[in-house]
Amino acid sequence: MMDLVFANKEPKVWVERVAIFESKEHGSPIREVELAKGLNLIWAKENAGDEPSLGHGVGKTSFCRLIRYCLGEDSFATKEFKERVLFELPEAYVAAVVWIKGIQWTVARALDARKKKFVVQEGNFVTVFSDKNQLDWKTYQQAIEQAVVPDQLILPVSGNEVSWGHVLSWCSRDQEAYLGDYYTWRDTRSESDAPGFTHPSKDPINMVRLCLSGESSNEQKLSRKVKQLGSEIANLEKEIASLERAPKLAWERLAKLLRNRIGVDQDVPVSTDQPQLFPTDLLGKARGELGNYQDEIEKLTGQQDGVREQQTEEAAERKLAEKDLRKFESLLKLERKSFYKESQKREERSKLKKQILNPSDELCELGNVRLSECKHIQEFQVLIGSSLDEKRRENESNELYQKRLTAIRNYKSRVKSVEETIKFHSRKEGLLESDYKKLQLKIQSVTALHAQLNQSIDDLSEYDDILSGRSDFKELNDLKSKLQKKTQEQHRESQSLDSASLSHAATSKKLTELYKQIVHEVFPDYTGECILGASVPFRIRGRGGEALHISEVLLGDICTLLYGANKGVTHPGMLIHDSPREADMGDNLYQKYEQLLVQLHQLGVSQDAFPFQYIVTTTTGPSSELIEQGVVKLILHSGNKDGFLFKQSFSGGELL
After folding, report:
1. Cβ-Cβ contacts under 8 Å for 379 (sequence gap 6 or more)
2. H or E element at residue 380
3. What is the Cα–Cα distance from 404 to 410, expressed in whole angstroms?
4. Gyration radius of the chain over CA positions
5. Which of 221, 202, 199 lies closest to 151 in space, CA to CA?
6. How far apart are CA 179 and CA 591, in angstroms?
7. Which of 84, 179, 42 is nearest to 187 (CA)?
8. Phi, psi of 369 (to 5 degrees)
9. How does residue 92 score in pLDDT terms, banded at 50, 70 and 90?
10. What is the pLDDT of residue 216?
11. 418: Cβ contacts below 8 Å, ≥ 6 apart
12. Buried b or exposed e, range 154-177, using 16+ CB within 10 angstroms
């Protein structure tokens, strides 16, 4: 009798009921199956006189696939068989009552996956389609994910995350996989569309190891952390080694450049600790050259200030000339205006005098005589010809006229002269501006040389101080401090990793102890062993052929099912075995396997605790003990249509 004590009362995930409906409008299901925690047998019964193979094709594999479908797998059958089912039952639904960490969920999925899914908490098959408090399918899947895989598990080789879909594949092998290899859970022939692995040869091994290691599942994170820290430490050590060489290399390079820059021999020492009136070391000479640059900058700046001062003076002279120009232009304008008025008066008097002295033959309007014979005209002619006042006025008019002409010529000359003066000062200002810019370029050039030399002196001084021990190399010290912290962190993480590895080894030891008990019930003379992470994790030590190999996988699954009840283990506490190779096992071995199932069920009854749900389909008639225990939940047969899962046989039979 196995010595096991169940810590938990129920699995994390288990299925209480499964029902198939012709449509969501049909209240009565085609088939309803009540399951339980613990052992559940689905028996494909052979009819009297039938060939043994006739136990197949009645729906036991479809039953397993429908459970997987209700738990989240994308497909419930191959494409060919699905088409046959949907041809006969186009509106059919499968529904299930699923318990997730003590909370009841009722779900329904159409066999045509494109149609709406129904999800409610609590509920039942009567209300699942009409309940107004519908949840989405994603919420339901997240609830299972959180219950089974609460912590993030990252596969170390591929970097992919372990999902509920991966765990479901592990706990519900395809019948087509034939228990041939522990890590082969899905077969392409089943067309299950279950999530696969990037590295099929390594990812399943690592997944099982991580899922069963319980609290040591953190080992992968620690391993990656230690590896990452090792890489960072190696990089820091390289940087430190490079920086330790850097001051000497930089010192030599900068000293050579500085010697060439100031033109001294290569054997001139870089520095000296002795005070010197006339420096003989490289840095001293360079600082002297730096002073020369500074003197040159000051000299050029002084010249530039002088040029700017001359520019200011020339600008002032130009502005005075421009003021004079505006004055003379105004006077010239006034003289021209006066000259114009005087010219008009002279012209009018000359015209009048001419008319008097040379009258025309026209008749005078007053005397009706010719103008030349007019007495008054003749008197004016005598007066004009003999009047001293008239001659004086004419002379004054001529003098004023000449005076105006002379003034105009003078002002024109002054304007032209002032304009020349302005042009002269403007040209001089332009030349001075050119000189100023040339000096500015020289100043910039000397300033750049000064800055470069000053930087070279500072850089060389810094490295000279570091090499002579007068100052610390801050960058190097910071890296050494960082290296020390990283090394201490790596040590702490390595210790944690060692602890995790010990826990991993402890997990293998616990699994081995459990596996030994299970193996002993079936193979009393053999012993079992578990090595997590090995390509064959469960081994039975003893002589045997194919039956022994099948038993290793079959009993290994049962071992992980029972171990999954432990805290921190990533396992739903649920296992589905679809026809576990009875023919290959032989009658005697299969009977011992049945006895193991009886013991498991009796252990749960005695402890009033079933932390697992084990669903097994079989074509072999169960023992009387199993029947008495009430673990046979469904009997299928081909005797009539009611014996088929869907209560009808689809053309070509069920595709298994």
Report:
1. none
2. helix 375-386
3. 10
4. 58
5. 221
6. 18
7. 179
8. -125, 165
9. very high
10. 44
11. 321, 324, 325, 328
12. ebbeeebebbbbbbbbbbbbbbbb
Q: Calculate mean pLDDT across residues 47-57.
A: 55
Give the pLDDT band (50/70/90) at residue 515: very high
DSSP codes, 87-149: HH-TT-EEEEEEEETTEEEEEEEESSTTSPPEEEES--TTTTTT-SS---HHHHHHHHHHHH-
Per-residue pLDDT, 548 = 86
Residue 359, SS3 per DSSP: coil
Task: State the CATH class of domain 282-468.
Answer: mainly alpha
What angle (nearest 5°) sits at the alpha carbon of residue 314, between those of residues 308 and 318? 140
| Residue 388 confidence (pLDDT) above 70 | no
Q: Which fold has domain 9-151+570-656?
A: Rossmann fold (3.40.50)
Better-scored residue on pLDDT, 488 or 416: 488
What distance in Å separates the CA atoms of residue 62 and residue 192, rounded to the nearest whole number? Answer: 12
The order of strands in the sheet holding 93-100 is 31-34, 13-21, 93-100, 103-110, 118-121
Instruction: Specify the pLDDT at position 49.
Output: 53
Phi, psi torsion values for 39, nearest 5 degrees:
-90, 135
pLDDT of residue 328: 78
CA–CA distance, 328 with 344 (Å, rounded to integer): 24
Separation of alpha carbons 539 and 529, rounded Å: 5
What digits encode the pLDDT tens for the residues 523-541?
998 999 998 888 999 999 8
The conformational region for residue 533 under phi > 0 = left, psi -120 to 50 = alpha, else beta, is left
Query: Please, what sign has the CA dihedral across residues 283, 286, 292, 295?
Result: negative
For 608-656, how does the pLDDT look when each residue is reduced to its tens digit (9 = 90+)? 889 999 999 999 889 999 999 899 999 999 989 999 999 998 855 443 3
- What is the residue extent of each domain of the chain? 9-151+570-656, 282-468
| Strand partners of residue 44 | 636
> What pLDDT score does 655 carry?
34
3-class DSSP state of 172: strand
Reading phi first (left if > 0) and then psi (alpha if -120 to 50, else beta), residue 490 is in alpha
* CA–CA gap between residue 622 and residue 634 (Å, rounded): 12
What pTM did the predictor assign?
0.62
Q: Which conformational region is residue 416 in: left (phi greater than 0), alpha (psi within -120 to 50 degrees), or beta?
A: alpha
Kindly state the helix (H) or strand (E) to which residue 489 belongs, with its residue range. Answer: helix 474-522
- CB proximity list for 434: less than 8 A, separation 6 or greater: none
Identify the three-state secondary structure at position 16: strand
Cα→Cα distances 120→75, 135, 165, 541, 634, Å: 21, 6, 21, 49, 26
Q: Nearest-CA neighbor of 555 among 519, 586, 582?
A: 519
Strands in 411-475 per DSSP E: none
Pairing of strands 632-636, 613-618: unpaired
- Which is more confident, 388 or 358? 358
- pLDDT band of residue 391 (cuts 50, 70, 90) is low
* Model confidence pLDDT, tens digit, residues 110-158: 999 999 999 999 889 989 999 999 999 999 999 999 999 988 888 877 8
Determine the pLDDT at residue 43.
94
Please give the biggest Cα pair distance in the chain: 182
